[in-house]
Write a structure and sequence with these properties.
- By secondary structure, this protein is α/β, with parallel strands linked by helices.
- It folds into two domains: 33 residues; 233 residues, Rossmann fold (3-Layer(aba) Sandwich).
- The protein has eleven helices and nine strands.
- The strands form two sheets. The protein has a six-stranded mixed beta sheet. Strands 1-2-3 form a three-stranded antiparallel beta sheet, with helices on one face.
- Helix 3 crosses helix 11 and helix 6 packs parallel to helix 7.
- The longest helix is centred in the last third of the chain and has 23 residues.
- The chain starts with 17 loop residues before the first strand and ends in a 9-residue tail after the last helix.
- The structure holds adenosine-5'-triphosphate and (3R,4S,5R)-3,4,5-trihydroxycyclohex-1-ENE-1-carboxylic acid (SKM).
- The site of adenosine-5'-triphosphate has 17 residues, from helix 3, helix 8 and helix 11.
């Protein structure tokens, strides 16, 4: 797994924003003091030495409170406890950095991301939804139709740039966010996890819910499974190894093999969340050995 830039495991003082105010409409207001030299909003003079910047985004504050088991009836109490204990192990070393989930459409970024946010006591955000909000259009499909894919991608990059200064967020990114190198620069301010799901499983999941909300898969004739499978295969080919830039790779095929399953559909989202934390832990250990040999790893 190639790591574009390493993360320091040394506890680092955070200067970014905190989700500091819940607002009644379900959104959260973030604020931070922008240090000198950071680019301000368009039209601002930038002359103050520091200035309070506010960004209001909708999010789902995920506190666990036993919600893991309730979210998924297939989650056993033992699995839920293991998940929480893995999160407790990893949390101090994440040091409030954001977690970005990358992967193809339907790979489970939202499902797994919500669980991770719950056990890490982070807030969950979906970058597609943030793009919709910032453009003022109700769906990604509409943005593609009314504007263009390039317009969507530009706004996606702006959203990721804004998120890159924040903390304590789990972000489900858009499936195509990985294709722009600049987005990696933003996401690498946090920890990135690739959910690697076989195309057949993705096509099955997507066929079950339809392709209407996924403009890059919509519009071809044929049965929903074949249509989704063909388009996903073409996108995967185009994207090549872009997803492999993530710090941690979570391969559903590997988890299934380890657990003696022949089909990844036997894996619960909680199992996948546990493996995600395991892979994050491995990344943090490996990275700290290479980059920071003096760091105390006893807690991991
Ligand atoms: N482990 C799993 N097993 C079976 N179905 C799953 C699993 N994880 C997610 N799903 C289902 O797959 C579909 C896609 O999941 P989800 O929305 O979490 O993916 P996503 O990566 O966020 O997708 P997109 O990028 O298109 O928004 C949903 O219907 C979800 O219920
Ligand atoms: O894989 C992709 O390119 C996309 C995935 C979705 O999450 C949306 O971001 C959009 O439909 C494009």
């Amino acid at each position: 797994m190639e790591a574009i830039s390493g993360l320091s495991l040394r506890p680092c003082p955070w200067t970014g924003p905190v989700a500091d105010r819940r607002i009644s409409d379900g959104s959260v207001s973030f604020s931070r003091v922008r240090p000198v030299g950071m680019r301000g909003p368009k039209g601002s003079s930038g002359s103050n030495r520091s200035r309070r910047v506010e960004m209001k985004i909708s999010c789902c504050q995920s506190r666990n409170n036993g919600a893991v088991g309730r979210q998924n009836p297939r989650t056993s109490k033992d699995e839920a406890l293991l998940l929480q204990s893995k999160a407790n192990e990893v949390a101090p070393y994440l040091n409030d950095r954001c977690v970005y989930l990358v992967g193809m459409m339907g790979s489970g970024k939202t499902t797994v991301g919500t669980i991770l946010a719950g056990v890490l006591a982070y807030s969950f955000l979906d970058s597609d939804k943030l793009v919709e909000q910032s453009v003022g259009v109700s769906s990604v499909a509409e943005i593609f139709k009314e504007h263009s894919e390039a317009f969507f991608r530009d706004n996606e990059s702006k959203v990721l740039e804004n998120l890159s200064t924040m903390r304590r967020l789990v972000v489900a990114t858009g499936g195509g966010a990985v294709i722009r190198p600049i987005n990696w620069r933003y996401m690498k301010q946090g920890l990135t996890i690739w959910l690697d799901v076989p195309l057949e499983a993705l096509a099955r999941r997507i066929a079950a819910v339809g392709t209407a909300s996924r403009p890059l898969l919509h519009g071809e004739s044929g049965d929903p499974y074949t249509k989704a499978f063909m388009r996903l295969s073409a996108l995967a080919e185009q994207r090549g190894t872009a997803y492999a830039n993530a710090d941690a790779k979570v391969s559903l095929e590997n988890i299934a093999a380890k657990q003696g399953h022949t089909d990844v559909s036997a894996l619960t989202p909680t199992t996948i969340a546990i493996e995600s934390l395991e892979q994050v832990k491995s990344f943090l250990i490996e990275n700290s050995t290479v980059k920071n040999s003096t760091f105390n790893l006893k807690g991991l």
